[in-house]
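ARCHIVE CARD
Drawer: 12
Card no.: 0347
Subject: one protein chain, sequence and derived structure
Cross-reference: see card 0346
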Amino acid sequence: MNFGIIGSGMIARIHAQAITAMDGGTLHSVFNHRAEGAEKLAEEHGVRAFADFSDFLADPALDVVTICTPSGAHFEPALAALASGKHVIVEKPLEVTTERIDRMIAAAKASGKTLASVLNRRFTPAMDAFKSAVDQSRFGQLASASCYVKWFRDQAYYDSAPWRGTLALDGGGALMNQAIHAIDALIHLAGPVRSVQASAACIGHTGIEVEDIAVAILEFENGARGVIEGSTCTWSKDGHPVRVQLAGTEGSVFLADESFEVWDFKHEHPEDAGIRAKLMNHAAPGLGANDPSAIRYAQHQRNFEEIVTAIHEGREPATTASIARQAVAVIEAIYQSSRDGGKQTFPKSHVAIL
């Protein structure tokens, strides 16, 4: 399938690298309103550059569009691409409100095309092992499920573009843009969130409309309790890894980025020794914790390959829009709870009927 990228900058380059490396897809074109931006990325990969959006979408050779615009500017290009008969893959978050996401899902259904998101932290060997343990009910009764993203972004990061740190185009701060992958992983592993009670603040930055730290207490549908903590104001020399932790009556697993700090079950399985040997923590710095450019493209590649396979097989991808919606719904509820002084708030768990 021929892929076209909408956007520029670091994330668009990661998409280009992943598409170039993937099986089942070829980078075909790049669109950017700024002609020089489109031309630069296109030249790096030997593909077509477009500065006219209508011409980009009208290309009959284009099959799949990936969207790398600011978070709150995903809606309109996604709807236009779906209406033009293209499959659409959107960088996280799918959009910054569930209301917009529901309209995007309705548009995809009407077009008969696939709408999916980039949830690349799902595509690691450690996450595969973690999810397998969940699916095998190895934790017994799940009691605790939490995630922690203690990252750092300096003031220059927010000052680097006028849309950063704005509600309209960032949609939120540390949760919506940095911790969303960990929140998605937590839901992927522990199941739906029933309610949240939260507090958020901006402590370490100026001139932004969004939080740089938030903490929420969770209750899951299965009865487990947990915590979400996300920040961009917690400095460290090498950067803290993203941590996702599950513990129950028969087991505990603590994941740090792409390896485990704890893999401990009451009932041992034959694969446990191999998991400990290959996937236990090696004290690597947090991936992207202090430097966004440190993010690697391999998991994007696997994410894109899974979506293309799903399209060919006529099924929903693992990161389809309704799945990507779940983390945004939880983040919306956290923001609402924080505005309401920590009042218990319930995520909008179902796609609205449009």
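Annotation on reverse: The first helix runs from residue 9 to 21. The chain has eleven helices and 13 strands.
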